[in-house]
Design a protein that fits this description.
Blueprint (H helix, E strand, L loop, with lengths): L13 H6 L1 H16 L2 H14 L4 H13 L3 H14 L6 H11 L3 H14 L4 H13 L3 H14 L4 H25 L4 H13 L3 H14 L6 H11 L3 H14 L4 H13 L3 H14 L6 H11 L3 H13 L6 H17 L3 H37 L1
Helix pairs in contact: 2-3, 2-4, 3-4, 4-5, 5-6, 6-7, 6-8, 7-8, 8-9, 8-10, 9-10, 11-12, 12-13, 13-14, 14-15, 15-16, 16-17, 17-18, 17-19, 18-19, 19-20
């Protein structure tokens, strides 16, 4: 993560320049040096400007910024302190004071400064991000979660915020699991939590073992058989997955997610008729459920029920943006094939054109993500 996420040279009122041409010259030279990335020249120019106008909060702020870029943290901190003393509501001053305090491991002072910045500028996602980072360093993961969640709301998609937010949530989860273990090390919940952590670590055999331990202690607990079935599905142990989904439905007949998953597993086990029956139940309960129409269309196509399959793929397409992207694209592809089989060339061409258009958009989006990743990697390494 870059040291400074929003480097901004603060300008001064023109009348202040008019009072002292030497000050104007020094200030402008410092600003030009900052923009050019010449931190030594910037420090020299702003130091002179600060001597010529010691009561200018903006000059002390800019001098602190240049020193912060040099990693001269203990020189920067007094300048930021001077800036906030002269202008308590100067935007950015508390932010960079907090960053400098964080860098010298003074976490309480960093938190105080960053919290003040977020009060002055409530829309500043960077202030909230750094506040969360400092709170994490101070060992207060719960407070960090609150700060970083707010930062994410203000700046969705920011990779730095998402990274630190993920760390904070993981630490809160870890703390919760540790407290759970202390409270009752033999609880089925402990085994369930361990199973979930093993899944996240891709240790699926260990996850199966812990999930089965949880089931031994709580055989009729809703959700446990579904979790075990999900793990077996990831392992491509479809017969076991099918059995566990069936057991889940015996315990919780209203579990629409288990019903849907059982239907898809049945399709993967070459049981399209079972899939059609199960997904019909799913759609009766929830007419817009995920990609149920798409999966049902696949099963009907395998059974040779061309018109029924077309109807279901069209229903998936009708969801538009609400549909899963891959299911939407594949529905158009399947429609193109089915229309061609049923001697409807114009409809087939239209569906194929839609499929190709969506595929091109997805390919372009993936290429852009790759370019963005390369740019981020380059910026971090500089």
């Amino acid at each position: 993560m870059a040291l400074l996420t929003a480097l901004t040279v603060l300008a001064l009122p023109a009348d202040l320049f008019a009072q002292d041409p030497s000050f104007e010259k020094s200030f402008n030279e410092g600003a030009r040096a900052m923009h050019a990335g010449d931190w030594n020249a910037a420090v020299a120019s702003f130091t002179l400007a600060a001597k010529l106008s010691p009561d200018s909060a903006e000059v002390h702020f800019n001098l602190g910024l240049a020193q912060l870029q040099q990693r001269h943290l203990r020189d920067a901190i007094p300048e930021f302190n001077r800036a906030v003393a002269l202008s308590p509501k100067l935007k950015g001053a508390h932010l960079f004071l907090g960053i400098a305090r964080y860098r010298v491991n003074d976490y309480p002072a960093a938190i105080a400064a960053l919290r003040r910045e977020s009060q002055i500028d409530s829309s500043n996602a960077q202030a909230l991000m750094w506040l969360g980072v400092a709170q994490l360093a101070a060992g207060d993961a719960q407070a960090a979660v609150t700060s970083l969640d707010k930062a994410d709301q203000l700046s969705p998609g920011d990779v730095d915020i998402l990274y630190h937010r993920g760390r904070a949530h993981m630490l809160v989860s870890k703390e919760s699991y540790e407290e759970m273990y202390k409270a009752d090390p033999n609880s089925w919940r402990v085994h369930q939590a361990l199973a979930q952590s093993f899944v996240e670590a891709d240790r699926l055999e260990d996850a199966v073992h812990e999930c089965q331990n949880a089931l031994d202690l709580r055989p009729l607990e809703p959700g446990l058989h579904e979790e075990l079935a999900d793990i077996f599905w990831q392992q491509n142990q479809l017969e076991k997955a099918e059995s566990e989904f069936q057991d889940e439905l015996k315990i919780d007949p209203e579990s629409i997610s288990s019903l849907y998953k059982l239907a898809v597993v049945s399709l993967e086990r070459s049981k399209p008729a079972v899939t059609v029956s199960l997904l019909s139940q799913v759609l009766r309960q929830s007419p817009h459920y995920r990609d149920a129409h798409y999966q049902k269309g696949r099963a009907e196509a395998q059974l040779g029920l061309v018109n029924d399959a077309i109807d279901d793929f069209k229903a998936e397409v009708a969801k538009g943006e609400r549909a899963d992207g891959d299911s939407l694209r594949q529905s158009y592809y399947q429609l193109a094939q089915l229309y061609r089989r049923s001697q409807h060339p114009e409809e087939s061409k239209a569906a194929l054109d839609a499929f190709l258009r969506l595929k091109q958009q997805e390919d372009a989006a993936q290429a852009q993500k790759l370019q963005d990743k390369i740019k981020r990697s380059s910026s971090v390494s500089q």
